[in-house]
Amino acid sequence: MPLARALEPTKHGATRDERGEGVISAAIAVLVMAFLGAAMYVGFSGVLRASQDKTQRQVDCIGMASASGCGGDATTPPTT
């Protein structure tokens, strides 16, 4: 008799053994979103770190006539 009772429909039309499916699906969705968020954080951190380094190098080159690593003659103003 317990098996028959477990398989009879509930008020919402689902059988008793399907009641936890929504909770499990929601938990899986939360985990997937957490992993996607972590991956995006790592990716954006790398991009922003590289941009910060490049910007800092360019700022350091401003005003230097011929510094190594700044392009040499390309950064010097033309003489008239």
Low-confidence segments, ≥5 residues, pLDDT <50?
none
N-to-C SSE string, H for helix and E for strand: HH
If helices are DSSP runs of H or I spanning 4 or more residues, what is the number of helices?
Answer: 2
Strand count, sense and barrel status of the largest sheet are: none
Count of strand segments:
0
Terminal Cα separation, in Å? 102 Å
Overall, the morphology is rod-shaped
Percent helix, as a range, is 55-70%
Walk me through what this model shows:
- By secondary structure, the protein is mainly α.
- The chain has a domain of 36 residues.
- The protein contains two helices and no strands.
- The longest helix has 41 residues.
- The protein starts with a helix and ends in a 19-residue tail after the last helix.
- The mean pLDDT is 78.
Which features does this protein show?
80 residues, mainly alpha, 2 helices, rod-shaped
Helices and strands, with pairings:
Layout: H1 2-7, H2 21-61
Quick overview of this protein structure:
With 80 residues, this protein is mostly helical.
